[in-house]
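Hi support team,

I submitted a single chain yesterday and got back a structure, but I'm not sure I'm reading the token output correctly. Could someone confirm the output below corresponds to the sequence I sent? I've pasted both exactly as they appear in my results page.

Thanks,
R.
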Amino acid sequence: MKFKEFLYDKIYTFIFYFVTMLFISLVFFLDGTLQVNISNILYINAVCFVFFLIYLLWEYFLINKHYSLIKDIIYNEKEDIIHRLPKPNTNVQYIYNELLKKIYEEQMLKIENLYNLKKENQEFITSWVHEIKTPISVCRLIIENSIENPSEDILYSIEEEINKIDNYVEQALYYSKSDDFSKDYFIKEISLLSILKEIIKKHSKTFISKGISVELPDNSMEVLTDKKWLIFIINQIISNSLKYTPKGGKIKIFLEKNEKEKRLIIIDNGIGIKNEDIGRVFDRGFTGHNGRENYKSTGMGLYLAKKLCEKLGHKISIESKYGEYTKVTIHFPKLNDYYNTIK
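Hi R., thanks for writing in. Yes, this is the structure output for that exact sequence:
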């Protein structure tokens, strides 16, 4: 810091000093009871001014030293800047140091969150690419083996693999949009039964090919939600049920309600989930024993289902017994609780 800059910063201090000295000098000069002549007043002013200059030089030395250290940190490109801040000499410097530390911590937290998000996205894309290559390869193999002898069964097989590809693409799309959810949703009352029929129709070929029966609810139920996002959520659950339910199995869907909430319940008699995995099935990228040993999985379906449920103001829960069944429940709170949740 240049001395001229320091003096400019102290302009109000100079004004206060000169006004104070002028006032004191006038008091001495105008008060007849004090035997003080003009030369004494000038002498007092001169001595005070010297002391004032000494104080300014001392303060300049301290501030300039602190300023130089900070300037060196700014222009010297080294890491860990915050821990190299000079020791504060005043309370103001201490407050600024604390402010810088707080800003630094907040920025580091944001960077860490961005890094984790980038890592998650990279892991998801890597997993997604590997998964989507499987049905593509199967389609090619089916086509190559059926060129000379095409049949309707082969077309069904290709369609099934294409549906898998479509599901993976849809999963990636909703994953990319999940953080900007507020820009793309519209809440209104919809019929759960109509949504269920739409989803079951989409998976009809898989139900037929695996011989899995489905039992839909007799009653309908209106809930407040976004239709597009809820279809995606239920579709992830149905896809999992179809994947982990053996041939000849059964999926049962029914609706319940009480004073607090409405519930959509989906039960399958598939392979179930082990006790050690049940608490982690909604974690991002978690595939569990079933995903590792029996089926290929990205571990993103239920993670996205839960994430989107929370954004819609719903809840999702799961219970299972390994080797017997899996039960997934979507909870729709009553009207007042719903509005409190999405605020």
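A quick pointer for reading it: The chain has a mean pLDDT of 81. Let us know if anything else looks off.

Best,
Support desk
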